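Feature request disguised as a bug report, sorry. It would help if multi-protein outputs had a clear separator. Right now it looks like this:
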Amino acid sequence: MNRLLVGLGFVLVIAGLLWPWLRKMNLFHLPGDIVIDRPGFRLFLPITTMLIVSAVLSILAWFMRR
């Protein structure tokens, strides 16, 4: 459990450091992501992005178990 938490913390720190470059990528504006933009209100539902992230994490978890 300790290794998992340290690894997760490391990944979050790296993602935080790379965040300015990650935001410039079109990762968060894929077809299938829902954006409702009205005056004074913005709702963003990254459905497609979360499906891709979930698939990648599932594959990584499968490789870690083997």
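(second protein starts here, but nothing in the output says so)
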Amino acid sequence: MSKVKTIFVCSQCGYESLKWAGKCPHCNNWNSFEETESYPDSRRTQATFSQSEPLLLSEHTEISKTRILTEIGEFDRVLGGGIFQASVSLVAGDPGIGKSTLLLQMAGRLIKKNIPVLYVSAEESFWQIKARSRRLGVDTLALPLLVETDVENILNQIDQMQPQVVIIDSIQAIYSPEVSGAPGNISQVRECSSRLFRAAKEKGWSLLLVGHITKEGGIAGPKILEHMVDVVIYFEGDSFYQYRILRSLKNRFGSAHEIGLFIMDKDGLKEVDNPSNLFVSTTSGNTPGSAIVCSFEGSRPILAEIQALVSRSSYGTPQRTVSGFDQKKLALLLAIMEKHCGLNLSFSDVFVKVAGGLKIDDPGIDVGISAAVYSSFADRPLNNKAVYIGELGLNGEIRSVSHLERRVEEALKLGYNLIYIPRLETPVKSFQANSRIKILRHISDLIQISTPVHKKQKEGIR
């Protein structure tokens, strides 16, 4: 039998090398190589693979739409319409964020629908999960629970029970006796995940894996783990807020970057029907530095509140502090406002945040951020029933954004009587006929509508 070889694998990208190196030549990360073992090909060929033949696309006109609905609407939305048959999904998040709670609730809903489920716990004991199930109200259901860490025993139990859905909590706690090293290292995660993936694809059961998060915010284990799975879901949230965000970063069966919103309470996770009401305050509209924006996350528009505070700096270098979006975006928007609006912000500290702790990457909130900053700078409140939509270009023009009609419909549906949008190349008749919709062409237009002509602020405006 061939001898086992020692190789070094990059923990960030999965690049393999025969020698250790300080810097990975593929992803350029430092000190990311970890020692692992490479098994000979004779060991890998012991596994039996199903013999498949090529199929012609022209001979199969009907697409299989076999999905399992979890009866948790926000979870089904993120998955692309439910759990796809023989799919592998990875759910990752910070410790204590609610990953196990969500999957245990989902398992209970599936058991009520008479769908066979196997919940495998490799980290918690039976009684710990029993206590959680009592809090969630699923302790009276006939849900099979397997407390096991050996991947061989897990696969044997799956073969005996033949469930439709298998939940592994978590993949970093599973180990294979054929691989040296502690559970969670690169060799163990790669070997155990590949065996589970292969079994799920060959035998047709759906697999949901729970993944750990590193201190840098990435999924622990080899990067190839994210490439192999069909769906990658991040469970986000903050210990200071009740809400939790389920965000898909990869989905082979639906749209990526879809989000689902939940609220964590004593009875578990509950869905949020109207997320816009969660992130928009009804009391802060009459204060300077507050503006309402409409972001588009996945396939849904969400209204959010931007809060800004501009004050004279007490230090030599003014501060630029951001919460909820990229800090470089704020520096860019401030430079545009100074150049095209004549605002002097060189001696002012600027603090901007997305209220409620929401994180937004959508460029469609640029105009709203600029409006909130100017409102705080001029110390004048904006219209509390106005919504600002648009991307800001370097030359000061306000550019159009994707899904503009959906954003406007959401704002009008929630009762906002003034929606500022960018100029459209193809005019929309419904927009032209609606007096509540106003067109902004340049960032200077925003300053004109925010400040009455007879009360122009002269301080700091050139």
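Even a blank line would do. Unrelated, but nice: Residues 186-203 form the longest helix (18 residues).
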